[in-house]
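Propose amino acids for all 499 sites.
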């Protein structure tokens, strides 16, 4: 016994036995997992219609809201419509479905006064036009459209409450029935909270399979997870999988943290895949990214994560992106068209406010660890300013700009000023700017001609700007700010992926 204890002590000291919360052999997630979209695209919901797939995510405080993406291969996605052209409130986990050849998106929202409700919008094609949102007049979050074995329509919310829907899917017709209670998480696990949410129901063979997110969407790396249950009847009883959870980050050493919120889709040839979200280890500033894992149904009848290499390739990522390559959004603006006019060659912006806190910037997306944003700015007003920003929300943003007199630094609603080494460029109101994000370290340059560059005397480190520290469920996005009065014209915009 003494010899056994001595060996164990030796192994613990020299790190060959795994410690609690650490993985002895971290998963090779580059082989099993595919990241399919750039930037934060959290709370994914997917549906297949014929040979095509359609995907939506939470749009939170961004306008336009609810971007619909289309793909023919589950890997390469392009936007096909934006559902909400005006600001409808803070929008969380939506659900996209097809019923009787009509597309529906159910989504929860909270207005600026804090009122919460669930809404639905519909369209005859995913390209739209989409109907005006219909208020279903029920609380709760993360609605999931379900069709029972009797063909009746229901709406399942994160609490496990199932509401009957009208035949047209646009109104609640009765009281809810709670059909599922959360799977009990082991007490010793490090989680953010129980937080059952993101329920997804998929019929495979004779069973309905229910997938629920638990553990909290952020917090410890091991928090979020996907659990599985099954039933032959939508009303239950539901049997939990004996090996739950189906998906979870088990160690802080893994590449993807807080994996959860699974949405299941089948292919025409019978394969099954789960779309979900997660934070990238060391890059929480990029928000929750959309990932893909393959599933298999084994002899026990349960769905399991496929072992080994996934049968789909990773998508190619653009190394250089221009104006036309983005779905541009802004923060809490009533409509993107109110202040922004976007063509493939030029962006014109009506100036607003004196800082990015007061005047919502125009925002792009990227999931690159290292990137540069560059553009030519021309001020069309005596009291106009402009710049490039890394923007989380009104309170957390960082950037570099100029006006007719000086260089500007933007930081959390404040503006600092210093003299320019190209004063004539300032005076004429035309300057090239370049912002670099090097793994959460920001720096910038300015130029009078786009050839000879001077470095700004400031820099930032922003690795702490993410949901765990500043809340909001958002991510740091590159953007364009125009302040003061008048207009700003932006040309030669380019985002370079330096990874």
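Proposal:
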């Amino acid at each position: 016994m003494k010899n056994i204890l001595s060996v164990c002590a030796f192994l613990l000291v020299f790190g060959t036995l795994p410690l609690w919360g650490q993985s002895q052999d971290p998963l090779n997630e580059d082989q099993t997992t595919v990241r399919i979209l750039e930037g934060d695209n959290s709370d994914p919901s997917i549906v297949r219609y014929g040979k095509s797939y359609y995907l939506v995510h939470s749009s939170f405080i961004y306008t336009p809201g609810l971007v619909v993406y289309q793909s023919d291969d589950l890997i390469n996605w392009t936007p096909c419509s934006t559902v909400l052209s005006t600001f409808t409130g803070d929008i969380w986990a939506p659900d996209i479905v097809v019923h009787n050849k009509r597309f529906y998106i159910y989504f929860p929202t909270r207005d600026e006064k804090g009122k919460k409700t669930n809404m639905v919008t519909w369209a005859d094609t995913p390209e739209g036009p989409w109907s005006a949102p219909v208020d279903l007049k029920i609380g709760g979050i993360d609605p999931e459209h379900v069709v029972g074995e009797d063909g009746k329509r229901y709406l399942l919310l994160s609490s496990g409450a199932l509401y009957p829907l009208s035949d047209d899917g646009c109104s609640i017709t009765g009281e809810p029935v709670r059909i599922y209670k959360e799977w009990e998480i082991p007490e010793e696990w490090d989680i953010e909270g129980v937080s059952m949410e993101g329920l997804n129901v998929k019929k495979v063979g004779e069973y309905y399979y229910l997938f629920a997110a638990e553990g909290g969407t952020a917090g410890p790396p091991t928090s979020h997870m996907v659990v599985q249950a099954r039933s032959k009847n939508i009303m239950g009883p539901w049997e939990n999988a004996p090996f739950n959870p189906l998906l979870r980050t088990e160690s802080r050493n893994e590449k993807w943290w807080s994996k959860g919120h699974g949405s299941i889709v089948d292919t025409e040839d019978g394969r099954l895949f789960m779309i979900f979200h997660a934070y990238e280890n060391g890059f929480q500033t990029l928000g929750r990214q959309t990932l893909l894992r393959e599933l298999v149904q084994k002899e026990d009848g349960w769905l399991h994560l496929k072992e080994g290499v996934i049968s789909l390739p990773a998508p190619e990522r653009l190394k250089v992106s221009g104006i036309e390559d983005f779905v541009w959004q802004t923060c809490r603006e009533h409509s993107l068209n109110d202040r922004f006019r976007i063509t493939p060659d030029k962006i014109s912006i009506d100036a607003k406010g004196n800082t990015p806190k007061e005047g919502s910037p125009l925002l792009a997306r990227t999931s690159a660890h290292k990137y540069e944003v560059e553009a030519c700015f021309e001020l069309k007003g005596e009291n106009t300013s402009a710049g490039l920003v890394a923007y989380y929300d009104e309170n957390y943003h960082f950037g570099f700009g100029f006006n007719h007199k000086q260089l500007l630094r933007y930081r959390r609603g404040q503006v600092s000023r210093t003299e320019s080494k190209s004063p004539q460029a300032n005076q004429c109101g035309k300057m090239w700017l370049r912002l670099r994000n090097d793994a959460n370290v920001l720096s910038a340059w300015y130029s009078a001609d786009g050839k000879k560059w001077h470095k700004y005397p400031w820099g930032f480190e922003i690795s702490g700007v993410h949901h765990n520290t500043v809340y909001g469920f958002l991510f740091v996005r590159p953007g364009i700010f125009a302040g003061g009065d008048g207009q700003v014209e932006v040309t030669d915009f380019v985002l370079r992926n330096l990874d």
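The CA atoms of residues 136 and 171 lie 6 Å apart. The longest strand covers residues 283-297.
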